[in-house]
């Protein structure tokens, strides 16, 4: 009997770690959901998507309507909620307020990654945060607003000013394409106040460029510190579209968030 007990104990000692490894292997890998910001579109993530896919991640580049924080967040939350796996939710620029709110309405978000993005607290808007520290020059780079039939206004960056303002470290030909394909943001969206700061309960990571002219680096440093970011990366000389000009660094940070415990 003692031999049998000893044998059973030995087998259990071998099987328990094996079962644990099997459980880890069966755990679903996070899906990465990318949310573009104002004056951009889903293609701005192409370099990041290519790297994440080559490393085995499922990636969704969600379309951000750019109409208002609450309604845009509802749209993104719908995309996230349809994913049957944990999600790393990534936002660029105005996509930051959108993922901040969307994560509060989707129970499967394990991490937030802010890429040159706003991370507002309750009652703050993108415009409020932009003016918190000096350095933003977006206002002077905007084209005349486009007035829609309902009286609301759409904002674009002047095409002749787009490269310098938005994508100074992107090859000129690519920046020209980005200027032509930019999607407008509703003026009201940039003034809409945040409601639920999900970065207070969900781990966050931040990355931005030191030469960002849309959101001053000092503002981004403030937001990252306030959020208790797990890691903050400042890319020297990078513009507002750091994900386009430095996709390797952005993809690496997203993967770090995806594998964090």
Judging from the principal axes of the Cα atoms, what is the shape? globular
Order of helices and strands: HEHEHEHEHHEEHHEHEHEHH
- Please state how the strands of the largest beta sheet are arranged side by side: 2-1-3-4-8-9
Topology, number of strands: 9
Average of the residue pLDDT scores = 92
Largest sheet: 6 strands, parallel
| Integer count of domains | 1
What is the tally of helical segments? 12
The CATH topology name reads: Rossmann fold
Structural class assignment? alpha/beta
- How much helicity do the residues have? 40-55%
- The CATH superfamily bears the name Alpha/Beta hydrolase fold, catalytic domain
Architecture, CATH level 2? 3-Layer(aba) Sandwich
Intertermini distance:
43 Å
**What portion of residues belong to β-strands?**
15-25%
Q: Which residues form runs of ≥5 with pLDDT under 50?
A: 1-24
Q: What Rg do the Cα atoms give?
A: 21 Å
- By CATH reckoning, the class would read Alpha Beta
Explain this structure.
The chain is of the alpha/beta class and 261 residues long. The protein has one domain: Rossmann fold, CATH 3.40.50. It has helices at residues 2-26, 46-54, 69-81, 95-102, 126-130, 138-141, 159-166, 172-181, 187-191, 217-227, 242-245, 247-259, and strands spanning 31-35, 59-62, 87-93, 109-117, 146-147, 153-155, 185-186, 204-209, 231-235. Strands 2-1-3-4-8-9 form a six-stranded parallel β-sheet, sandwiched between helices. Strands 5-6-7 form a three-stranded antiparallel β-sheet. Residues 1-24 have low confidence and may be disordered.
